[in-house]
Amino acid sequence: MRIIVTGGAGFIGSALVRHLVAASHDVLTVDALTYAGNRASLRDVEDNPRHRLLHANICDRGAMDAAIVQFRPDRIMHLAAESHVDRSITGAADFVQTNIVGTFTLLEAARGYWQALAPDAKAAFRFLHVSTDEVYGSLGDEGLFEETTPYDPSSPYSASKAASDHLAKAWHRTYGLPVVVSNCSNNYGPYHFPEKLIPLTILNALAGRELPVYGKGENVRDWLYVEDHARALDLIAERGRPGETYNVGGRNERRNIDVVQRICEALDAAVPASAPHDRLILFVTDRPGHDARYAIDAGKLESELGWRAQETFETGIEKTVQWYLDNAWWWQPLRDRYDGERLGLVKEDAGT
Fold first, then answer.
1. pLDDT tens digits, one per residue of 54-81
2. Fewer CB within 10 Å, N- or C-terminus of the chain?
3. 175 is known as an active-site residue
4. Active site annotation includes 339
């Protein structure tokens, strides 16, 4: 197949691109290469004749029209997004522009292309819109997010993703564009930008720096290994029903403090000279609107499409820690630019 992946130089996007190229698809990666987009994440496919990288912004309608018409994709898999909650708290405008306006722009470009296709190609075309479980808001101690859970976003990031989800579904209902939507739980694994909890904890611990944990670390997340997610996205785009939503979760709920402590244990075994690493844990002021718990019910994806996560949290975190130990060539340049502080706490105005 010929597949366009937007945001393909990002964390989840690059895992998807590597998966698709390995499966012998022709892939055009479209990425604006902002701070979280990294050409180095595509090193494994950069010389592969099945892959090409286009440096372009999804908000640029002319560039999107040209890319789609010239590449003639069978499938568009849309992952390009501003994705960090902390950054959205202090800089919401970029999230509105990329996640909402960019998705609208891409949907319109895809619709124009799709409407001009021959009947067989038109019937086979798919637009996969990739989203997050954060659009559902916060869970109590019990229950799971299902595809029918009402949206209740808490942060500018999740609100912008909720808006883009609604746009994608509306383009299916109004225009018939064959859109499928996926909502995933927290991803982790190789090539993860080091401002997020797991890579930040690994790299700060290796450097002997404090390991900041919001509040008391009681917030719960369902963790999904990124390569499991890439397989799910390929399957959803191939076999998912247009107009439907599929939740992707790892069935690996953990409190944030337990995640950090498990990373410390893995590093104690791998780098015993600097153990114990949990001495570096520091509880910091919680961020505004911090959802208490996310947990995905992936039953629809599992029963309808036959997907299963291959990694448990234990196996996945071992692989992740080892990858960061072995691949300083990838993360060290990022650490030189991003110093490992927690982002997004709202600062009081001077004089208040």
1. 999 999 999 999 999 999 999 999 999 9
2. C
3. no
4. no
